[in-house]
Fold this sequence. Notes:
Elements: E1 4-9, H1 17-30, E2 35-40, H2 42-45, H3 52-68, E3 77-80, H4 86-95, H5 100-104, H6 107-115, H7 122-125, H8 127-137, E4 142-144, H9 150-166, E5 176-178, H10 212-220, H11 237-249, H12 252-264, H13 269-295, H14 298-327
Parallel strand pairs: 1-2, 2-3, 4-5
Helix pairs in contact: 3-13, 4-8, 4-14, 8-9, 10-13, 11-13
This protein binds ligand 1.
Amino acid sequence: MKETVVSGIRPTGKLHLGNYFGAFKNFLKLQEQFECYFFIADYHSLTTHPNPADLKGSVKRVLAEYIALGLDPEKCTVYLQSDVPETAELYLFLNMNAYMGELERVTSFKEKARTQPNNINAGLLTYPVLMAADILLHRGIKVPVGKDQEQHLEMTRTFANRFNRLYNIDYFPEPQAFTFDTQLVKVPGLTGGGKMSKSAGESDSIYLDEPAASLNKKIMRAVSDSGPAEAGAPKSQAVQNLFDLMGLVCNQNTISFFDTEHKNGSIRYGDLKKQLAADMETFVAPLRDNIEAMLANDKKLTEIAQFGAEKARKNAQKTLSEVREIIGFSKFYL
Length: 334
Ligand code: TYM
């Protein structure tokens, strides 16, 4: 039997390079080889209380992007998380077995609690449990994600193992974060900080349908430094970020050229950025066109969502009926 792959992306706006190179690129290859479930994590996005119209628009956008970027609904199951309410039921079961202390220690929770002190809701605390429910619902083994999700995967394994121990059954497998790269990917943003992320502001991210003019502007304005202090000086974080971005879209000769220039202390960041912007535009241009075309095709998107919801629910219902049986519910009224 083929191994099962599960992953999702929150509909919090447009997809960016981080989503693509951290996760999506792997989805494309995995759909050719495995039993794949790729969903839009709309339940997860409720932690930030989006208004209904925005949520609807964002879900449609991510679905359109999934298809425009190459997911094939005949090869993999593409669905909306909220179309599969079995997710919520499994989340409830797993919550009984997830502890306050361990949830409070999760880095993403601590970070959110710090940045949004007025909205530390229970959904934020139990976010890793919902994510475990997504994965275990399909008994996923491979979970293609970026580096930032590593800890959540560890929690999924903890919850799966705990369930198995509690009921003394080897039911849930141990899912692992997956990438075809040598290690989980972290795509840096343009503002000199850590990973590319929408919360770091508009100028940090390059979207997969970024218009040519703003793409160029964002890269030309990306944070660098005042140049290597001397020949052979190490790269600053901001400059390393630019090299990392080059690694995604530029060819090896280009990267080696600028690397040598940096080592020699003669690098001109303006030239590097110009080249990066040109290569990035070559990468983004066809994606931009595909996304635009797909966004205009409501009928096709609706059909895809319905088709995917049916396939995903069928599998989810099987898991849930087994889980209920394990827990003891189905025997209650026999
Ligand atoms: P989300 O929506 O924040 O991001 C979606 C995917 O994109 C990856 N990613 C990145 N990878 C590398 N560099 C970056 N700068 C970068 N930014 C984002 C993320 O690692 C992720 O793979 N909790 C998840 C969604 C989710 C999920 C799941 C994933 C819900 N349930 C079950 C896998 C399995 C999230 O918020 O991802």
